[in-house]
């Protein structure tokens, strides 16, 4: 895709997007404190500590064929989080480890650290891959779950994920060297620590949410993948929420609300309501019992036909692509006739932007990278503006070129800044940063070529020819270390 096909600069149309308010806040917050202490560069942003590509959460589901409930811990770990070692059988292997501990209510923090839990469940598995490149992939992962039927009561749940076998605090084994600034052994292990209340049988005061991949009809699908990104949804992507209500009461009103929150230094502030839906009694499903299963490396919510349950189900489509990159609270309210509303369930989560392009972590760097799509005078003015003016100009620039103002996430902006990162990775040499090279600039404008040719003329430097339909760009090697200059285009 030629990203310069959507708005006019130098007589050429270029494709860009607006940014969101929360993104602007992130850019500013990340720049004004650090910039005073040291100059932030694109390279220094790339060296920031990795956020572990591993997620964990828990769910409560009715026990199948009996009264009571099952506590289910679900998790997801990317290959780049694991520690792979060369296998004697060939290829590479890793042994990720998950430990779920359940303590009775009243257990002190010190007892939870040193004492034996009331219940302990462990998961481990050997992951094998043939290609070295997959051992650092963020796009390959393992998903699974641990479950345990548990008596009603209050408990303290802790779940720890580790990239290697043994306890999360055990010494690291000899593993391949990571390309990231910190090895998997040095990065913090994701964990979950939470108070859990298991309801008494027949308790109708508690409902449960399950965040699912987007689905229009749960009754026909019967099996829908959980999002399984811990206590996160995915910024820019719509999803669904399945609500389980233990008992539907005629004449009662059920309302699902989602509020945006601002959480800073332990203080939580309500920002605004972003979604509200009154549940339609006619669309509630009955005659099912749900469970959570693992199937082909996916964690699924499964609906099974059952005559022994009184619960009701309601599937809601959540327009998450309209929501900001921020914290939210989902809440189900139940209003009996002529009575005050009662909260049956609530869940706080973060709308996570996975794999955010590096430049968007800092306003100054994002503006710097816009030199390839802006008039030089306008770009110079934006770079020299004060912090507040720079924010306004940055926001106005992208808003003017927003192709879909109904959503907060704009894939065209993401694509441009993603190409900045990819150009740096692929074309950087000791002489030049990748996005400033001739090949990098062509890649920024046009993306991946339809095909490439490598030519070795006798007695002349090597050449690469990139084809885009009927157009082609010819690059000539200059140093023998990956440096190429554009010598012809047509």
Structure description:
It is a single chain. By secondary structure, the protein is α+β, with helices and mostly antiparallel strands. It has a domain at 54-203. Helices cover 18% and strands 37% of the residues. It has helices at residues 21-37, 42-46, 109-114, 218-221, 363-368, 376-384, 387-400, 411-427, 438-446, and strands spanning 8-9, 12-13, 54-62, 69-78, 85-86, 92-94, 97-104, 119-124, 127-129, 141-150, 153-162, 191-198, 208-213, 223-225, 232-234, 239-245, 253-264, 267-278, 288-295, 298-305, 312-318, 327-335, 342-352, 451-455, 463-468, 471-477, 484-489. The chain is globular, with a radius of gyration of 26 Å. The model is unreliable at 6-37 and 169-186 (pLDDT under 50).
Number of helices: 9
- Terminal-residue CA separation: 17 Å
Multimeric status of the protein: single chain
* Sheet with most strands: 5 strands, mixed
Rg (C-alpha, Å) = 26 Å
The helix-and-strand class reads alpha+beta
- Unreliable stretches covering 5 or more consecutive residues: 6-37, 169-186
How much helix is in the residues? 10-25%
Strand segment tally:
27
């Amino acid at each position: 895709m030629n990203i310069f096909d959507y708005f006019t600069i130098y007589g050429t149309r270029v494709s860009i997007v607006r940014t969101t308010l929360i993104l602007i806040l992130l850019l500013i917050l990340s720049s004004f404190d650090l910039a005073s202490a040291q100059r932030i560069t694109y390279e220094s942003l790339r060296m920031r500590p990795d956020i572990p590509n591993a997620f964990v959460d828990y769910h409560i589901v009715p026990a199948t064929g009996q009264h009571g409930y099952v506590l289910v811990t679900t998790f997801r770990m990317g290959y780049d989080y694991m520690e792979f070692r060369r296998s004697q059988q060939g290829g590479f292997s890793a042994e990720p480890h998950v430990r779920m501990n359940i303590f009775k209510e009243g257990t002190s923090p010190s007892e939870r650290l040193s004492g034996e839990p009331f219940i302990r469940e462990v998961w481990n598995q050997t992951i094998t891959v043939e290609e070295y490149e997959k051992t650092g992939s963020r796009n390959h992962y393992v998903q699974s779950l641990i479950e345990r039927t548990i008596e009603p009561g209050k408990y303290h749940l802790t779940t720890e994920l580790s990239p290697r076998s043994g306890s999360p605090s055990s010494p690291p084994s000899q593993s391949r060297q990571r390309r990231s600034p910190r090895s998997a052994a040095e990065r913090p292990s994701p964990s979950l620590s939470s108070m859990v209340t298991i309801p008494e049988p027949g308790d109708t005061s508690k409902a449960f949410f399950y965040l699912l991949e987007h689905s229009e009809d749960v009754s026909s699908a019967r099996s829908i993948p959980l999002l399984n990104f811990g206590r996160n949804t995915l910024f820019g992507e719509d999803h669904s929420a399945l609500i389980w209500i233990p008992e539907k009461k005629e004449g009662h009103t059920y309302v699902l609300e989602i509020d945006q929150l601002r959480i800073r230094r332990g203080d939580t502030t309500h920002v605004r309501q972003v979604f509200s839906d009154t549940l339609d009694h006619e669309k509630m499903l009955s005659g099912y019992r749900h469970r959570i299963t693992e199937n082909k490396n996916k964690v699924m919510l499964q609906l099974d036909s059952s005559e022994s349950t009184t619960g009701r189900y309601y599937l809601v489509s959540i327009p998450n692509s309209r929501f900001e990159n921020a914290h939210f609270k989902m809440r189900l309210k139940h209003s009996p006739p002529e009575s005050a509303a009662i909260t049956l369930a609530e869940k706080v989560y973060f709308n996570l932007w996975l794999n955010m392009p590096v430049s968007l972590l800092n306003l100054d760097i994002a503006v710097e990278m816009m030199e390839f799509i802006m008039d030089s005078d306008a770009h110079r003015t934006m770079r020299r503006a004060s912090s507040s003016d720079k924010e306004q100009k940055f926001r106005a620039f992208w808003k003017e070129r927003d192709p879909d103002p109904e959503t907060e996430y704009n894939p065209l902006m993401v694509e441009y800044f993603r190409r900045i990162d990819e150009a740096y990775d692929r074309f950087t040499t000791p002489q030049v940063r990748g996005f400033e090279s001739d090949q990098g600039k062509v890649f920024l404008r046009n993306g991946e070529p339809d095909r490439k040719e490598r030519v070795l003329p006798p007695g002349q430097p090597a050449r690469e020819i990139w084809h885009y339909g009927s157009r082609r760009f010819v690059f000539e090697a200059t140093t023998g270390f990956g440096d190429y200059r554009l010598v012809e285009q047509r």
